[in-house]
Amino acid sequence: MSSQNLLQKLQQLPECPVDDEVLHQTFVAAYGQLASIRKRLKLDDLENRLLDNCLAALEQVQIDIGQRLNHEADTYNVLADALEHVQQQLDSHSALSLEITQIRLDAQNAADEAIQQANMHAAEADSRAINAENAHERASGALVTAQLALTTLNNEFAQYRRKNPERLALDLQERDKTISQLRADRKKQSALKLELQQKLNIADKEVGKERRLRGETANELIKLTALHNNLKERVEFHDGQEDVAQFLLPLPDGSGDVGCYIYNYHFGLSVFHGMRDVSIETANFHYQIRTAMMLAMDVVPGVWGNPVFRILPDLLPMWDTAINDELHERIMTRLALDFPRLHQRIIDGKAAPVSELVIPARALNALIKAGYETVAAVGGELPPELVKVKGLSEATVEEIRMAVNSWCINWAKTNGDIEPIKNGNLKRR
């Protein structure tokens, strides 16, 4: 077969109905279908990966087919160009027919080889096409499944449309408007709530202040009630009529007795001059010693629990110290109730030996010889009585009183101060 006949035969080959555009549209349709499947179906991660692998395989098939077609077109063009060139050489150079014949043979061989290679490439393309067809079948199966799912969704949507008419869209718009209005109202309510919260905070402060005032008032009421109850107990217990103690003082000539009676009173007395610094002016009680002749001696409590009073001169020769002891016991009972810290200081003073007083040895020996063994015994003695002790002068008695006061100050440093015992100030003894 001449090269011209071969060229004509090549030119007379019918065109393939599946051109590049058709293949391209086919692949575009396949990609679209797979994308629709992804949108319509709710796939899990595994199914998404399978679909991605399918897309990748399909893309690779498209690339391989395009490369194959391009290669065959290039081969065809090269072969056609070669044949045309040979034909032109034969037409213009008939003298070179032998050489042309050889060239034709070479071209034929080259064409055969190219055809053989083309056949091999075609076989490879067929193999790839088979693989692509298999992948296409799998994609088709997935597509069928997706179509079934789409059909199901369309049916469900149709049922939903039948059950829910299109007027629901209008209702949805109305609902959106209502939501917007509610949001605006909620914003106003939030502002109002903030304002009310601020007012509530102010009200809480006022209520707290009122509660504190009520608490303070309640505490004051409790204190007043306790004070009232305490005073009531005193009045009921010390009304001057109960616990009357009787003592009989025999007359010096033996002609009879003088009766002395101790009465309790629930109110205090201001002591007379000379005894103010040894008595408790703030004590709300006092006593009275009455005789059968209606002579009376007022008794006030001393700061050491001792009774402070002046004995009538006529009674001094026959005086019974048991009266002093009785008064001391009554005073200590009241001090334990009204002046507990002072009461404790007296108890400690009774337990403290007189040697704890910082006084000269001569004065200490004089006190011991006179029978004053404790600090309380010395502190409870009136100054006029201490001056009568042998070996003590007025100056020495003043030193002893200062030493007793120092002992009280040291006691207060260790045990705390005592209650006020002076009216109108906080001076303590």
Structural notes for this entry:
The protein is of the alpha+beta class and 429 residues long. Helices cover 67% and strands 7% of the residues. It is built from 11 helices and 5 strands. It has helices at residues 3-11, 20-40, 45-92, 97-163, 167-237, 321-338, 340-351, 361-369, 375-379, 383-387, 394-415, and strands at residues 245-250, 257-265, 286-291, 296-301, 307-308. A 5-stranded antiparallel beta sheet has the order 1-2-3-4-5. Strand 1 and strand 2 form a beta hairpin. The longest helix has 71 residues, at 167-237. The radius of gyration is 66 Å and the shape is rod-shaped.
Backbone CA Rg: 66 Å
Largest sheet: 5 strands, antiparallel
Q: Can you give the helix content as a percent range? A: 55-70%
Q: Whole-Å distance between the termini?
A: 154 Å
How many beta-strand elements? 5
What share of the residues does DSSP label as strand, in percent? 5-15%
| Number of distinct helices | 11
Low-confidence stretches: 423-429
Based on CA inertia axes, which overall geometry fits? rod-shaped
Mean pLDDT: 81
Topology pattern, helix = H, strand = E: HHHHHEEEEEHHHHHH
- Quaternary state reads single chain
Which strands sit side by side, in order, in the main sheet? 1-2-3-4-5
Content-based structural category: alpha+beta
List the helices and strands and how they pair.
Elements: H1 3-11, H2 20-40, H3 45-92, H4 97-163, H5 167-237, E1 245-250, E2 257-265, E3 286-291, E4 296-301, E5 307-308, H6 321-338, H7 340-351, H8 361-369, H9 375-379, H10 383-387, H11 394-415
